[in-house]
TrEMBL record:
This is Acyl-CoA dehydrogenase. GO terms for biological process: fatty acid beta-oxidation using acyl-CoA dehydrogenase. Coiled coil: none annotated. SUPFAM superfamilies: Acyl-CoA dehydrogenase C-terminal domain-like (SSF47203), Acyl-CoA dehydrogenase NM domain-like (SSF56645). Belongs to the acyl-CoA dehydrogenase family. Residues 122-217 form the Acyl-CoA oxidase/dehydrogenase middle domain. Residues 229-376 form the Acyl-CoA dehydrogenase/oxidase C-terminal domain. Keywords: FAD, Flavoprotein, Oxidoreductase. GO terms for cellular component: cytoplasm. The keyword Flavoprotein applies. Its cofactor is FAD. One of its GO terms (molecular function) is flavin adenine dinucleotide binding. PANTHER family: ACYL-COA DEHYDROGENASE 6, MEDIUM-CHAIN SPECIFIC ACYL-COA DEHYDROGENASE, MITOCHONDRIAL-RELATED.
Amino acid sequence: MKFTAEHEALRKTVRDFVEKEINPHCDEWEEAGTFPIHELFKKLGGLGLLGVQKPEEYGGMGLDYSYNLVVAEELGMAHCGGVPLAIGVQTDMCTPAMARFGSDELKRDFLAPAIAGDMVGCIGVSEVGAGSDVAGMKTTARKDGDDYIINGSKMWITNSPQADFICLLANTSDDKPHKNKSLIVVPMNSPGISFSPHLNKLGMRSSETAQIFFDDVRVPQRNRIGAEGTGFMMQMLQFQEERMWGAANVIKALENCINQTIDYCRERKTFGQPLIDNQVIHFRLAELQTEVEALRALTYQACELHIEGKDVTRLASMAKLKAGRLGREVTDSCLQYWGGMGYMWDNPLSRAFRDVRLVSIGGGADEIMLGIICKMMGTLPGKTRS
């Protein structure tokens, strides 16, 4: 992928923002289990970073996805994973379908404020019994006059405790699982919405996550995105950008782990020599950096084809799979070289080890990615290459 001067200017803007507005506060936010999301998002919105590829008429930059990729990659330099995750939810999970298929009214009322940083959004897909199995979700939205009445619950919803709206996937008919779902924008101050206490997560500690309950929540049918019954298709399209974002966000985070480990191994001496002088260590770090470069190439290729309008389901799934597995490999290997220091809770490798574990679970588990790839290879029983 060839980056222009405009790409590099955007990269510097994001890098400066991370260094000045995020990293000085990460330890505090991780300890608190929250960060000032409205305040931070307003600053991001002021720089245009919440609408890089969104339509200009609603406040976005109207750029192609390669610019969004640059933002995701640079956010990986944050000293925690939770804040970038919250930003990614806003830009690449709860707003893409609205930007692509939503009515002018929805875009005016929800998308434009989300781009400006005046509203915080979240995405409501996963449920206790339906995480990666999107087709198996149970939340319903039944018609009542011009409204929907929503009942059910959503689990592991990042940003939800402070969100202004949720892009909710719900069953709107009794049709087949892939044809009975719709995406509906629901204001979070609607009567009948309640929350669990904040979920006590292994990693991503600075992002707020909760379970949401919907008890006869009434919302106008005009808040539906696109035609009724097309929600599953929209969500699958949205997943591709989410998965590319996740892969891109991991790249520099893993490079940072490697570089921090190099610095530590230069300073730390055992048996009279720096740790880095051990061939097993510097060879392993070279191997890991090579793997990160392979992930970068795969992610960039998926992005290029996406910009050309090609179907990147296969490559985006591969990038997501590789990012999750490599994330575990890099953080585990690097943490080992920090020894006892790496086992401390507030060590940077310890935090990265916990945070990156989500990549193999959220947005479709590794096993789902493998199933998609196998289906497209034609290796599943009864399937042919697509």
